[in-house]
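ok so for the tutorial part 2 we go from a plain amino acid sequence to predicted structure tokens. step 1 is just haveing the sequence, like this:
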Amino acid sequence: MNRNRIFLLLSAVFAASSPLTFNEINIFENNSNSFPGWPSTYENKLLVKIGLTEKEKLFEEGFPGKIERFTDGSRELIIRWIDYPTRKLHSAARCFEGIGYKIKPLPIHLNKQNVEMSCFNAQKHSQILFVCEYILASSGDSWSDTSSWYWGALTSESSKGWMSYVVAEKK
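step 2 — the prediction. this is what the tokens look like for a chain of 171 residues:
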């Protein structure tokens, strides 16, 4: 075998085995020290911590950031602080599907600050929820879906640390 073939073979073996060898590599500094704290209000309503469910606590163990659940009296919010770009930030629709809800996608909505949010109805038995989500950077940039956030965050050096908002209310 000539050297080019050996090099090609070794490169292919390395490339094929790298997902098994390396867990998510953080090429960004850890931003835990830059966590700004949880917001105290949402759309001018006081937020009250209601704590994570047992399933949410399990998910938080491998999450690169912090997660908390709140209510503003009429809605529930899950707010996630993300230290660095990660594929572990799943869309709310996938999470709701994972716990047995049927999802009906809806058009993009604007919140009271004119931030675009991806929204859907989630139905399980007779319960129907209206759910919206978006992600905010400390720079003020926002994304209505996790995929566009991931690629935007991965390729940008302008901001580190993001807040993801998932807002659910009964219909």
